[in-house]
Task: inverse folding
C-alpha cells in the first residue's frame, strides 16, 4: 500500500471512530458545549482533552468509571499514576472520614504530619522532607533549594521530561514554563549530556530527571546514564534531583532504590498522599536544613494546605496499610506480565506496535523500532494512538489518548486479560494500517 493511500485510510478510520464515539454520547457532547462557554475549549486540565470531545465521568468505583451517558469503562489510566488505590477504596474512605471529623485545616501544626513524614523518610531514604500540594510545587521547591544551596542559577532538565505544569520539556521548553535558565540535556545520551554538564558546571545548580520518563513515553534511563549523572554531579558540586512523583510507585523504595543510584534530592507526588492533593521534596540533610525556621537565614516555604489533615491522615493509612511494600511488588509484577503479553501479541501479529515501561506503568507506541530516547518517538503517527484510544473506549477500556496506562491496585489479572483481548481486536480490525 502506498504511503498516501495508507494515510488516507488512517484518516478515514479515525474520522469514523470519532463519529461513532460522538453518536453514542449525546449528553457528553451537550456538556462539552456547555463547558466551552465558561472554560477555554471546555477544559481546565489540558491532558484530559481528546477529540472529538473528552469522556465526562459521572461516578467511579473500584476500577470502573461510568460516564454521563451511562457507558462503563475499566480504568487503566489510574489518574496518570496518582490514583493507585482505585476509586473509593474502603480504607482510604474511612481515613478521609476520620480526618474530616478531626478538622480539615488548623492553621497549626499537628501530629498527623509527623507520622506521615516519618513514614515517607523511612520508605524513600530521605534525611528530611517537606510537604507541598503537588508534584509541580515539589519540583519547583527542590530546584529552588538546589540554586540556593549551590549559589548557582542554571538548571538542567532533559528533553522529553515533565516535572509539572511549569516545568514541561517534552519537545524543548514550554512557553508557560517558570523562567529558570535551562540547559537541556539529552535523555540516555551519555556523551552529549556529559559534555553539557562539563561545559556549564560553573553555573549549573541542578540536574533533574525522572529515572523513567512518565509523560515522555515510559522510557527508562539506562543504568550507565544514571551512573554518569551521579558521578558528574557529585564531582562538580551539582545537586542531582530524581523526580519520583510517578516512578516511586515502581519499587517499594522508589526507582532510586531499584537502580542503586541515590540522588541528592527526590520529589514525590499525590499517590503518597493517598491520592489527595500532595507533593513532597526531600533528601540530604545539608540541603533540606536550609528550610529550618530556627535558623536566622532560613529559606521560606509557604503553602496553606501543605499539612492539611485530610492528606496527612489518608497518606499515612495509604502508605502503611494499603500500598505496602508487598502490595507494591505484586502490582508491579502484574504490570510486567501485562506488558509482556502485549509485546508478545504485537510480535505474533507482526504489527508496528511496542509496549514500554516498568512495572505498573505502561505506554503503547505505534512503532516497532527500539525506544531508548524521546526522539525515537518523533516519527510515530499520532493518529494511530488516537485510533487505539477510541477503539478501546468502544470496548469499555479507558487509558490516556497518548497510550499511557497506570494500573491501580483494583485492576486484576482478569482485567489485564481483557485488555489484551481488546488490543488484539483492535489489531485484527486495523491490521492493514499497523504493518
Result:
Amino acid at each position: 500500500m502506498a504511503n498516501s493511500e495508507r494515510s488516507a485510510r488512517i484518516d478515514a478510520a479515525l474520522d469514523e471512530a470519532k463519529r461513532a464515539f460522538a453518536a453514542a454520547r449525546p449528553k457528553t457532547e451537550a456538556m462539552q458545549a456547555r463547558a466551552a462557554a465558561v472554560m477555554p475549549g471546555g477544559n481546565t486540565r489540558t491532558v484530559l482533552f481528546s477529540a472529538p470531545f473528552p469522556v465526562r465521568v459521572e461516578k467511579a468505583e473500584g476500577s470502573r468509571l461510568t460516564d454521563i451517558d451511562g457507558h462503563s469503562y475499566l480504568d487503566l489510566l489510574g489518574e496518570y499514576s496518582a490514583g493507585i488505590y482505585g476509586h473509593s477504596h474502603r480504607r482510604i474512605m474511612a481515613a478521609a472520614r476520620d480526618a474530616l471529623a478531626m478538622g480539615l485545616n488548623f492553621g497549626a501544626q499537628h501530629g498527623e504530619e509527623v507520622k506521615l513524614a516519618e513514614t515517607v523518610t523511612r520508605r524513600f531514604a530521605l534525611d528530611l522532607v517537606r510537604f507541598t500540594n503537588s508534584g509541580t510545587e515539589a519540583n519547583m521547591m527542590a530546584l529552588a533549594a538546589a540554586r540556593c544551596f549551590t549559589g548557582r542559577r542554571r538548571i538542567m532538565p532533559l528533553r522529553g521530561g515533565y516535572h509539572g505544569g511549569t516545568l514541561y520539556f517534552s519537545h524543548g521548553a514550554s512557553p508557560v514554563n517558570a523562567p529558570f535558565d535551562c540547559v537541556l540535556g539529552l535523555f540516555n545520551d551519555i556523551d552529549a549530556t556529559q559534555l553539557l554538564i562539563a561545559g556549564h558546571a560553573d553555573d549549573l545548580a541542578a540536574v533533574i530527571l525522572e529515572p523513567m520518563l512518565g509523560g515522555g513515553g515510559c522510557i527508562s534511563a539506562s543504568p550507565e546514564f544514571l551512573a554518569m549523572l551521579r558521578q558528574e554531579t557529585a564531582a562538580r558540586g551539582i545537586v542531582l534531583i530524581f523526580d519520583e512523583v510517578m516512578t516511586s510507585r515502581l519499587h517499594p523504595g522508589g526507582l532510586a532504590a531499584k537502580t542503586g543510584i541515590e540522588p541528592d534530592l527526590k520529589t514525590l507526588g499525590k499517590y503518597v498522599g493517598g491520592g489527595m492533593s500532595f507533593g513532597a521534596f526531600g533528601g540530604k540533610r545539608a540541603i533540606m536544613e536550609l528550610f529550618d525556621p530556627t535558623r536566622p537565614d532560613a529559606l521560606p516555604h509557604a503553602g496553606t494546605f501543605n499539612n492539611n489533615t485530610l492528606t496527612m491522615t489518608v497518606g499515612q493509612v495509604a502508605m502503611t496499610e494499603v500500598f505496602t511494600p508487598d502490595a507494591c511488588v505484586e502490582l508491579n509484577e502484574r504490570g510486567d506480565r501485562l506488558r509482556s503479553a502485549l509485546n508478545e501479541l504485537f510480535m505474533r501479529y507482526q504489527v508496528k506496535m511496542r509496549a514500554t515501561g516498568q512495572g505498573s506503568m505502561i505506554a503503547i507506541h505505534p512503532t516497532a523500532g527500539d525506544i531508548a530516547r524521546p526522539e525515537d518517538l518523533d516519527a510515530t503517527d499520532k493518529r494511530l494512538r488516537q485510533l487505539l484510544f477510541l477503539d478501546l473506549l468502544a470496548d469499555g477500556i479507558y487509558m490516556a489518548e497518548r497510550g499511557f496506562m497506570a494500573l491501580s491496585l483494583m485492576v486484576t489479572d482478569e482485567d489485564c486479560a481483557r485488555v489484551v483481548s481488546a488490543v488484539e481486536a483492535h489489531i485484527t480490525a486495523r491490521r492493514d494500517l499497523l504493518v
